[in-house]
Structures are given as structure tokens and as C-alpha cells.
Design a protein that fits this description.
This is 3',5'-nucleoside bisphosphate phosphatase. GO terms for molecular function: 3',5'-nucleotide bisphosphate phosphatase activity; 5'-3' DNA exonuclease activity; 5'-3' RNA exonuclease activity. Its EC number is 3.1.3.97. With 285 residues, the chain is of the alpha/beta class. It binds adenosine monophosphate and manganese (II) ion (3 copies). The site of one manganese (II) ion has 4 residues, from loops.
């Protein structure tokens, strides 16, 4: 079961990816993915399309989402796998979570204008597939397109991150709410890309894992596109210490921006419980 090419984290044009759900399904299938989930930010509007496209290809599918959470002043992402994408409480919670994005984007554009970058709100909007889901990624694409930066990673280094122009503090969902929406929609909650959070100290990371588990969270992404080999080992050990299952997902956004393609990941360590063992009855065939 550990030797399964599962890719349980990626983004479509419904959030901040550049491919639509059908093109992602085709790419996952062509790359040899054996179990797939689309996990758009704060939005499940692509789930029925992704599931239908996967079914037509004979690719087993789990419905998914990636919820933005504020935990101890940091933004943390919680992936939900095997959810019912029509669950009313989940839909309501996600709509609330998306709610402040337009206001935030206007404030980001004002800060960018103050450092001489004009028209960023309208510019970012040109890249947005879903008007409720304007994200920093869309601003990054605009800043690359207009020649301010040479790639999206440079944008995040120079702008849009804490302490840099274009960063606007935002209150996302609460950890306990996100985990509850996922669980009550029939899914399993997963801490996404744990190495990407700038916890001020190791105690805060332990607090995240402990509170997540206490709220009913069951898994952590051990293998993900942004983890180094050392980080995969570290989070495999932490998964075992906390009794969490392990997930695997590229976090693919775009053929030109993402360095990790769909399905192009190391297998899970055989000591771990793969998250898909908890989700056998939620897989769509
Ligand atoms: P938002 O939800 O609007 O705060 O945007 C977050 C998204 O920005 C993430 O999901 C990534 O797609 C992207 N992002 C964040 N940090 C970086 C980075 N350092 N390099 C490239 N993309 C990033
Ligand atoms: Mn993203
Ligand atoms: Mn994320
Ligand atoms: Mn993601």
C-alpha cells in the first residue's frame, strides 16, 4: 500500500492553478498517478468536474480541498480528503473563509501602488479563473508578466510576504472549525506541507500537531513537492510520534511554475500508515 503513486494535493483554475480540472486529470493519468485528488484553496467548485474526468480515464479519485487557517498568528493549510463536496456546512465554512479575499487583494494593490507598481488589482484579476478566489499567486503572475520580477518565487521573496510590500495580514478559518467541516463532510483532515510554516519555536509546531490531533485531525503530508529529503524524514518521524497517517501530494499549480510535476514524488516510507488506508470507502471509481 505504501508503494502507490498517489497524488493528493494540486490546484486548478478554480483556485490558483493554471490548468482546468480536466487537463489536470489527463496530466495525472499520463504521469502514472494511481490515486488522485484535486485540492483547490477554500473552494470545491471543481470537484464534480475532476471526479467525472478521473472516472472517464479510469483514475481512482478522492474529493479534496485545502483550507486556509490562522493558527497562533500564522497561516497554516489543512487539506481535506474524501469529503462530500456538497456538504452544506463545508460549503458555508468555505464561503466564509473566501469572503475577505477581494478586500485583502485591494489592500495588497494599494501597498504595491505605494512602491510604484500600479494597476496590480486589475492586473491580478486577469489571471483569476474564479472571482471569489483572488490569491497572492495571481498577483505574482502579474508581477512576472509586467517584468517587475523574473519568476513567481522572486515575487514572494521581494513582495507579498510578511514584512514586504503587498503583504496584508488576514484572518482565515480556525483550526478546529476547518478540521470539523472536513470530518463532518466524511473526510480526513491532513496538515499540508508542514515544513513551510515559520513557527517561532519548536513548541509551537508541537502545539499545532497536538491541537490538530485533539480536534480530530488524522494525517500529515510527509511527501510533498516542497519538502527536502531531510524534511520528509523529519515529518515521517513526527507522524509516527503523533500517531498520524501520512499523505503524499505534489502541490502542483502549473507546468511552468511548479518544480514538482503531478505524481513525480518519492514513495511513502513503509513504516507509515498511508492516509488512503483510512479512505478506502471514499474513493470514487
Ligand atoms: P494566498 O492564499 O492568497 O495567501 O496565496 C497562497 C499561495 O501563494 C500558495 O498556495 C502558493 O500557491 C503561493 N505561494 C506562497 N508562497 C510562495 C512562494 N514562496 N513561492 C511561490 N508561490 C508561493
Ligand atoms: Mn496555491
Ligand atoms: Mn498550501
Ligand atoms: Mn496547495
Amino acid at each position: 500500500m505504501a508503494l502507490l503513486n498517489a497524488d493528493l494535493h494540486c490546484h486548478s483554475t478554480v483556485s490558483d492553478g493554471t490548468l482546468d480540472p480536466e487537463a489536470l486529470a489527463a496530466r495525472a493519468h499520463a504521469n502514472g498517478v494511481e490515486l488522485w485528488a484535486l485540492t483547490d484553496h477554500d473552494e470545491v467548485g471543481g470537484q464534480h468536474r475532476a471526479a467525472a474526468a478521473a472516472r472517464a480515464l479510469g483514475l481512482p479519485y478522492l474529493c479534496g480541498v485545502e483550507i486556509s487557517v490562522t493558527f497562533a498568528g500564522l497561516t497554516v493549510h489543512i487539506v481535506g480528503l474524501g469529503i462530500d463536496p456538497d456538504d452544506p456546512q463545508l460549503l458555508h465554512g468555505l464561503a466564509q473563509t473566501r469572503g475577505g479575499r477581494e478586500r485583502r487583494a485591494r489592500a495588497m494593490a494599494e501597498q504595491l501602488a505605494a512602491v510604484g507598481i500600479r494597476g496590480a488589482f486589475e492586473g491580478a484579476l486577469q489571471y483569476v479563473g474564479n472571482p471569489e478566489l483572488i490569491s497572492r499567486t495571481h498577483f505574482a503572475r502579474y508581477l512576472v508578466e509586467t517584468g517587475v520580477c523574473s519568476d513567481t518565487h522572486e515575487v514572494f521573496r521581494r513582495f507579498l510576504t510578511e514584512g514586504k510590500p503587498g503583504f496584508v495580514e488576514h484572518q482565515w478559518a480556525k483550526l478546529g472549525d476547518a478540521v470539523r467541516w472536513i470530518r463532518e463532510a466524511g473526510g480526513v483532515a491532513v496538515i499540508a506541507h508542514p515544513a513551510r510554516y515559520a513557527h517561532p519555536n519548536p513548541t509551537q509546531e508541537y502545539a499545532l500537531f497536538a491541537e490538530f490531533k485533539a480536534h480530530g485531525g488524522q494525517a500529515v503530508e510527509v511527501v510533498t513537492g516542497s519538502h527536502s529529503n531531510a524534511e520528509m524524514v523529519r515529518y515521517a518521524d513526527l507522524a509516527l510520534e503523533f500517531g498520524l497517517a501520512a499523505s503524499r501530494g505534489s502541490d502542483f499549480h502549473s507546468p511552468t511554475e511548479s518544480h514538482c510535476d503531478l505524481g513525480a514524488l518519492p514513495y511513502l516510507d513503509g513504516r507509515l500508515t498511508p492516509v488512503w488506508e483510512l479512505l478506502t470507502d471514499r474513493v470514487l471509481h
